[in-house]
Amino acid sequence: MELHVRVSLALSVVLLAANFLSPPCVPGQLAGHYIGAATGLENGTAAPPGFYGTFFPVVERVDELKGPGGNTIARPNINVVANMAAYAVTTQKKILGGYYGLSAIFPIVNTRFTANLFSASAESAGISDIYFAPIVLGWEKGNTNWTVNYGFYAPTGSFDPSLALNPGLGYWEHQIQAGATYSIGKPKLWNTSLLTTWEISQTRSGDIKPGPMFTGEYSFGRRFDKYQMNAGVAGYGYKKLSPDSGTGVNPLLAGITDRSFGIGPEWKYTNLKWRLGFDFRFEHQFAVQAKTSGGVFAMSITYLDLTPPPKK
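Below the sequence we write its predicted structure tokens.
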């Protein structure tokens, strides 16, 4: 029973690294690499010792462009499809009492954009910015799990500031995360979690530096089928903490910060005999300002190769 719970928690190790740029004339800020709805149930827990390989496709469907006051200024047709290969290792080594691990994500992004308002269409596809986390720490005590990690995005994706759509964002970015998962009651059937993500960007070509960004993701679920299944609701809140800066900022966008929220259902299933884990999640976005709005569908298939604990 306890092993199923811990492996189910491990599936939240995968982070999202998809991204897209807003089309011309949209009054929005520069996007960050991390997208709300990247994680869900039990996202405040690091994986137990072992190796994890994940295929993680994400589809973001955009049907509205929101202005700074939340008003709808256009209804385009934008589809962002990100197919990611994620690899994570948690070792038996402990640092500050927590298990040490590391992870990497290699995303391939395909973006399609059509809108009668702009009388334009565009498509962009290719390898996006690679994410690497050299520090992933996880602790467990009683009914509570904690995780803290640091990673960065390298501008490996193709980027041309003269194009409306690009696979990459064109700048380095630091990412710091901290979160916790709490299993309610002695049977540990009900669970809730919170994961915070902080993005600190470097200057992009054209002398534009995106402002720092914060994302808080939460979940509430219940385990079924001898702890192999976890189902519930997940949501997020995102806010850019300060406006973009630099001489390249469009005067029409100066001083603007964007925000968005999302919520929706999630279902997870782990089978130790198959060494596989599955995760399906959909979140509808709302209360959006100076940003695209729509919905995010994410799924993942994870191969689990757990490391047995050392003999005492």
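The chain has one helix and 14 strands.
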